[in-house]
Amino acid sequence: MRHDLDFLSIPNVVRIAARRFEDSLALVDAEVRFTFRQLESRMIQAVRSALALGIGPGDRVGLCAPNSAEWIVAALAIQGAGGVVVPLNTRFKAQEISYILRKSGAKALFASASFLGTDYIADLKRSDPDLPALRTTVSLAGARGAGDLSWHRFLGAGVEVSEKTAHEAIDRLTPAHISDVMFTSGTTGRPKGVILTHGQSLRAYGWMSTEYAFSALDTFLVIPPFFHCFGYKAGWLASLMHGVTVLPMAVFDAGRALEIISRERVSIILGPPTIFHDLLNHPKRSAHDLSSLRLSMTGGTTVPEVLIRAMKKDLSFDVVLSAYGLTESSALVTTTRIEDTEDTVARTTGRPIPGVEVRIADESAQEVPAGQDGEILVRGYNVTLGYWDDPEATAATIDAENWLHTGDVGHLDANGNLVIVDRKKEMYIVGGFNAYPAEIEKLLLAYEPIAEVAVIGVPDERLGEVGCAFVVQAAQADIGVQEVIAWAREHMANFKVPRHVRFVDQLPRNAGQKVLKHELRAQYEG
């Protein structure tokens, strides 16, 4: 089955699901409990409102809010009107969000007015008042804040637009239309917008959720954030295709998650290993009934076999899987299968999904023999159309034969399973979030007492890895570790903030003045 040909577009998934699953529960978020038919009705209402606001084919619209029913409906509204969703990391500060909105050419912004004490629209109005996206703003969930419209008023804005017009807008969408531009940081230190289509996501995650045996009997607690493919596409989108009930979780708290699992009979949780470590280590875990848990897939970092065994024994999962992907590949390239052994799940990320090729290449892009390490190249329908408004970066990443050069290092074992042996040369992963040293260094250099800085990833028991910043202070400066960390917390997303700071007189460099990060790693370990 080709889910892209069956569903055609992401909003059309909801319309088809409403026919297939009718009054089954689709979405649970606090007091919101939508059946599939109610979700379709709310989506059409929101599409009418998006059209009334002037959102149309190809328009980019920012979306910055925690996991919630409103996030899902807002995304469907934007896409249903023909627009393109630009998901925004809720951990980002105003200057980070502003860059993405300007780069994408966003003409409007949907954002939370009260998430963790932050009104994103108010912050942007203070820091970048001429930002084009601020011409049309909608506040999601709770108070209106600085937005032009509250969520309630937005839903009422489409009264002059007929339901027929909304359905016709959705009917015009095809699998080839762009559904979202997902910004991912890179080694240049500036985020790049990955262009993805409706068809790519439907085909990849329709297959994945079928392979994982998603069904209308399942309930999925979606913990990874919706601004990432893990929460958005492997989460609520995959669920709606199969009649799975979706429970968005705005902020992960292990104790609350255990309560929800028990109360709502949750059967599916996907996410980075950090989530499962926290569930396992919670002091009140044994007080909750976790027998409903059936399926998990974890990725983003190494998955030790001892964790897999604990997830099955102590969290009651029947199946634990692993997978590999990056945003440029629709975040899905390989996955283990239900029948695979624990050793295969722990040691590898599985085999390529149908329609996707994986090749291991040397520095000349020539294929290497099985078992030999090299750069992981990917080719297939899942590969991005390119980076938004960045042809140079696109050409540097996707070659003339349409191979995506991931920058990750690995090999294929005798059974065709992909084994990751190293990640992108500089990137490290903090609790499932990709952290790019070049971007963090660029941000830190805005702090005047810092003359030079180099950031590396170092091991962390809970988060997998965290940042360590090696700092050369400016002349006459006299700062301490806590001052650097405090400044970083104020000016960048939390996962980017270095947890360790080492002051040095100079950074080790080669003849070309490139910082020798292997020497910094040796210093840290020493």
Short description:
The chain has 18 helices and 24 strands. The chain is of the alpha/beta class and 526 residues long.
Shape: globular
Alpha-beta content class: alpha/beta
Q: Which range best describes the helical content: under 10%, 10-25%, 25-40%, 40-55%, 55-70% or over 70%?
A: 25-40%
Q: First CA to last CA: what distance?
A: 54 Å
**C-alpha Rg (nearest Å):** 23 Å
**Strand order of the main beta sheet, please?**
11-12-13-14-15
Count helical runs: 18
Percentage beta strand: 15-25%
* Averaged pLDDT: 94
| Low-pLDDT segments | none
CATH topology of the largest domain: Rossmann fold
- Structurally, the number of domains stands at 3
Tell me which CATH architecture of the largest domain applies here.
3-Layer(aba) Sandwich
Counting DSSP E segments of at least 2 residues, the number of strands comes to 24
> How many strands, which pairing sense, and closed or not: the largest β-sheet?
5 strands, mixed
- Determine and state the CATH class of the largest domain: Alpha Beta
Notes on the protein architecture:
By secondary structure, the protein is of the alpha/beta class. The protein folds into 3 domains: about 5-195, Rossmann fold (3-Layer(aba) Sandwich), CATH 3.40.50.980; about 250-420, ANL, N-terminal domain (Rossmann fold), CATH 3.40.50.12780; about 430-525, ANL, C-terminal domain (GMP Synthetase, Chain A, domain 3, 2-Layer Sandwich). The model has no long low-confidence stretch (mean pLDDT about 95).
